[in-house]
Every structure is written in C-alpha cells, then in structure tokens.
Write a structure and sequence with these properties.
This protein has about 140 residues and is of the alpha/beta class. The chain has one domain: Rossmann fold. About 45% of the residues lie in helices and about 15% in strands. It is built from seven helices and five strands, in the order H-E-H-E-H-H-E-H-E-H-E-H. It has a five-stranded parallel β-sheet with strand order 2-3-4-1-5, sandwiched between helices. Strand 3, helix 5 and strand 4 form a beta-alpha-beta unit. The longest helix has 12 residues.
Amino acid sequence: MIKRDITAELLEAAGEYPVVTVFGPRQSGKTTLVKMAFPGKSYYSLEDPDVRMAAETDPRGFLDNLKDGAVLDEIQRMPQLLSYIQGIVDRLNKPGVFILTGSHQPELHQAVSQTLAGRAAVLKPLPFSLSEKRE
C-alpha cells in the first residue's frame, strides 16, 4: 500500500480535534488512508446493510457501543448520526474520537460544518502525487 503524504496531517488533526472527516470522490483511497493511519481503531462501513440497519434502528445505542470511538466509513449514508456524534464528543471532550469518511457532496460538507462546527477537522486528499506513486 502507498503511504499518502496527507497521513501526517491526518494524524495531527486527530490529535487536536474530536472528529476528523476525510472527504473525497469515490475510489480515491479514503478508506485505505484511514485504515492505515488508525489500525487500532474500530472500523464500520455504513455501506454494509447490517451496520446501517443497526445505526438507523438505534443510532444512540449504536454509537454508545463505540466507547473508544471508531472509523465510520461512508458517513453520507447516515448523516443523521452527526448530531449524535456531536453530543458524544462534547461529553468526552478528547481528540481523535471519530474518523469519518464521505463522498464529495455539498450537502454533507454543509452538515458537518454546521453540526460539528469547531469539533471537526476536514481533510480532502488530493490525487496521488508523483512522490507517492514512486514509493
């Protein structure tokens, strides 16, 4: 796997903000990036129908089971989780609780900006650089 140049910025943001959101187009390496950067963090894809059903049926219970936070991949599938995440990170008051990934959608950007204002760093990885491709 290719180590992305943005990895250091991602880790730094997770040390400062309770939520880090990685936005980008589909198939741009967001999932691989966050899995490599946070190998010990629980991972849940909201594309998985069972995971999504659990989150839809009982969003508070779903998130309360993530005591140490988690990577929530494809957050655009469940933007209503953002309000619950806001409450959790306000209560915990620590950095790096949730790492979110999402597709490039203006509505999702706006929802994160409004709901998680001051709580979330937003990163937008660029396509692979020449130095990344050479590794």
